[in-house]
């Protein structure tokens, strides 16, 4: 804004120049001499450009008010259609006008234009009668003088009963009522008033008013469309982000999403947390380049692709490889960055691959923060790039911070400086006896690194590793043969006894037996049986057959087909997931209290 | 469940029991040549193995001869036994592992050999031993060969000699698995079956311990490790 003249000086300045050339007084009416005509044109030029510059509704109307008062009129009353029509659809609903704003020059002293109390007399909400003069005026779309024949009822309808009292309105041609007419709709009205001691509007002034109204109407329509698109994109983006994070055992999660300050600036940031077999969790953060509805739509598609790939339990570099391939099918010019990590709470390890995304930061329990230097890789959508998974220890109590560039990059800060600022902030976060909760950590990070208005959206995902000890796991490979179910039952019994879970012995043995029997039927390679004890007892049976079992009604003579019904009855939760190497069928039971 | 140190290679098919078997060691030693030192990084916790080594040290007289079958890098077992004053001979199928073992445990003797070469009447004879350690090495053999390997160990031990064995509990035979960026083939028994074949091979189990072990690498799943301390019965 600084490069432009201050709003009040724009058109008012022109008016004053007009004044200096044509006589004394603070504001002199624009006249008809060539110089005055030139002034009028210059005024219109500046005023319309300012009105056109407004990005949103309020800005556009503010520019109109500042352009009109005091250079052209002493007071302005703006009403807007409520609700403002979006798009080209014709609405059957009757027109309702809502007072938007009033502005007046300090010198304006008619009763109507007195400050505060008297403003109340201007109608807040106007419902023009269908056949009334105001409705006709709106429909005609042309501005009219206050003394035009039969205009009084329209003025009264718009400005309220107070306007019809004698002496309320300035005499003569000192009022112009100008409809704001968009492409297909009435957008509102503008009333321009001059005080009694100022010269009346001329016929040329009516043209000026018409110009101001036309440009304002276009600006309002543009702002409405723009705002509509932004809100659609914003809704689109929000519905594509996880509505809530999963709560897997062995890891705590918290996340934030902040849109860019300008609502029209929709981003393509996303994050996700996806539970994998073996109580591992995939942690994802990504960013589609650009700020548009398209970015949000592409983000939604990429997020779905990542979820599908994660479900196959592929290593991080392969997820990114396939994501890259799929992204190119969505179109040649969609570039995104993505960081994909897998946390394994049993081995206490983190596996991570990066596609051009800013590096993750690890906060250790001792308060030391470290930027994880994973090879940055090329962004998704470039194609033909090799990604690399890097493995690192993930000790209990460590916090992983994933974020998008909006957090670390701004007009004044480059990414490198921003990442270092984030690291320093995390390291300086006080935690005398215990680490701050993740929710607090997220808030603190945002307050410290993204305090003001933002050019870009921000996604933030934090994960604290809790892990669990190896003796809470049992894991075996078993060659598929007719005796495998019995072996699996015996292994299950042994481990459950070791864990003191005798109460779950019968149900677990039964379910393990059913699921293993089913797995053995189709497997060609050894199956695996995995038992995990956390706050629940989880059993996973993996085999190399891609066929995912579905619950079906067994016919009375069928030998199989009842297994999953049994699991469905006995387990608290169960599921079957396709993996890149086959499938896993899992079920969970609540561990009785006191164990 | 993961294979460990590569032992045994035989090119010849002589000898009664091995006669019907085609020994296929392809890739096994090469995998460990490539893995080298990374093996110890992936499996840093060796409490079970060190415990079984302590049992040998405690139960054998000083200066006793001990064979470390599938010695790997020599760490921790060959070093532990050597440091305790035992005379250690280490054997591994992987050339690289033997090189590393010679470097890490200079006081012990190492041979690049296949376990099958040590069978009765086989091409290599390292003499008799008071103790044999085979930690995660027999699982590199196909199941059909494991009873033969146990018989060879029986033959290599003096009467009453001690045998410390570790395996990963599983029921698989020559199962190809990804392992530290390579592929190896491994076999395993469930505990009850392992008891049976040890008994059949002439061993008495003195004590047994098992651990759930999570390797320090994310792509190797946790495994059930079994340590068996045995004595040659006759």
Write up what this structure looks like:
The complex is a heterodimer of chains A (about 600) and B (about 230). Chain A has about 600 residues and is of the alpha+beta class. In chain A, the strands form four sheets. In chain A, strands 3-2-1-6-5-4 form a six-stranded antiparallel β-sheet. Chain A has three domains: about 5-230, GAF domain (Beta-Lactamase, 2-Layer Sandwich), CATH 3.30.450; about 240-465, PPM-type phosphatase domain (Phosphatase 2c, domain 1, 4-Layer Sandwich), CATH 3.60.40; about 470-590, Heat Shock Protein 90. In chain A, helix 2 (about 35-55) runs parallel beside helix 6. In chain A, strand 18 (about 525-535) and strand 19 form a beta hairpin. Chain A has helices spanning about 10-20, 35-55, 55-70, 135-140, 150-160, 205-240, 295-310, 315-330, 415-430, 440-450, 485-500, 505-520, 565-570; strands at about 75-80, 95-105, 125, 145, 175-180, 185-195, 250-260, 270-275, 280-290, 335-345, 350-355, 360-365, 370, 390-395, 400-405, 460-465, 475-480, 525-535, 535-545, 575-580, 580-590. The longest helix of chain A is centred in the middle third of the chain and has 38 residues, at about 205-240. Chain A is elongated. Chain B contains seven helices and nine strands. In chain B, the strands form two sheets. In chain B, strands 3-2-1-4-5-9-8 form a seven-stranded mixed β-sheet, sandwiched between helices. Chain B has a two-stranded antiparallel sheet with strand order 6-7. The longest helix of chain B has 13 residues, at about 45-60. Chain B has helices at about 30-35, 40, 45-60, 75-85, 95-105, 145-155, 190-200; strands at about 65-70, 85-90, 110, 130-135, 155-170, 170-180, 180-190, 205-215, 225-230. Chain B has one domain (about 15-230): Rossmann fold (3-Layer(aba) Sandwich). In chain B, helix 6 (about 145-155) links the parallel strand 4 and strand 5. By secondary structure, chain B is an alpha/beta fold. The interface of A and B includes residues 349, 473, 476 and 490 of A.
